[in-house]
Each structure stands twice: as structure tokens, then as C-alpha cells.
Write a structure and sequence with these properties.
Blueprint (H helix, E strand, L loop, with lengths): L7 E5 L3 E2 L3 E2 L3 H14 L3 E5 L2 H4 L8 E6 L5 H11 L3 E10 L10 H8 L5 E4 L5 E5 L7 H12 L1 H14 L1
Parallel strand pairs: 1-4, 5-6
Antiparallel strand pairs: 2-3, 6-8, 7-8
Amino acid sequence: ACNVPVKAYAVDTWEGDSHAGYYGNEVYDELSAYHNPLYGGISRLMRMTFDQALDYFSESSIDLLHIDGLHTYDAVKNDFMNWLPKMSLRGFILMHDINVRERGFGVWKFWEEISTQYPAFSFDHSNGLGMVYVGQEPMPENIRWLITEVAASPERLAVVKRFFSRLG
């Protein structure tokens, strides 16, 4: 609709896991039936593991990566480290479930490590969503504002987090 040149990929087995539960083909089939007619021109569903998908992407080719696979510490760290070389000079990585501290989830622990190594911002509502800038180029102005200026002001930070919590 905005005529932005974009290529999007969704990587998943659509079989579930120990955290999400396991399921049959019905989830993938329903998603494909919805996705393909609407977004097939710009987006592709890749039914495979994150590790298997690595070979399909060139180094430095991804601007935005959302990690939301198996939620153990080792799995999340593996995904982050393996995909980091694929990130572009303006790359962002989103990590889901940074606030879940039960059922063997380890995203929160890995988030605590990387959010001190990279410019980062966390949306704390619900299960939490973390955003880290891993690029080498200067951050876009609106993201720099969020990560540096908002985070430095407790009042602004509270307003922004409350706003996104209401949206979520």
C-alpha cells in the first residue's frame, strides 16, 4: 500500500515446540491460505528451522529480524549469534518474550546480556519485546530518539511505555 520495496520472510516449522505446544498441518495450511493471496508478492513462508534457513540469506542482507522461536537461553543465543552476520549495516533485531521467567524460558536472561552490549529498548507489557540496534550506520532519528532520549528520561519513558502497553 505504501509502495515500499520490501521482501519479507517468515521462518518456522509450523509444528510447534515444547513451549508453544505441538500441532499438525492445520496451522500452516490456514496461514498459507490467508497469506499467499494477500502477501505472496512480497512475502514468503519458509517451512524450516532457523538454522536451515540461514543458507538462503546473504551476509549483511537483513534489515529487520524478529526472533521468536524456541525460548530456551541456548536456543535464543544460537539464533541471535547465527543470524547476526546476516544483519545489514542498519539492522535491528526484535526478541519476543523477554519478560517470561517460567517454563524454561531463557529469553529474559539472554536479553539482559545483549541489551547492555547494543543500543536497546524494551517494551515491557505482556510477555515483553526487546529491540536492539546491531547496525553500523547511524540509527534513524526516530529510533535514536526512542533509545537514547526517551530511555534517559523516567517521565518520558513511562509515557511511551504506557502508550505502547495500551496499544498492545
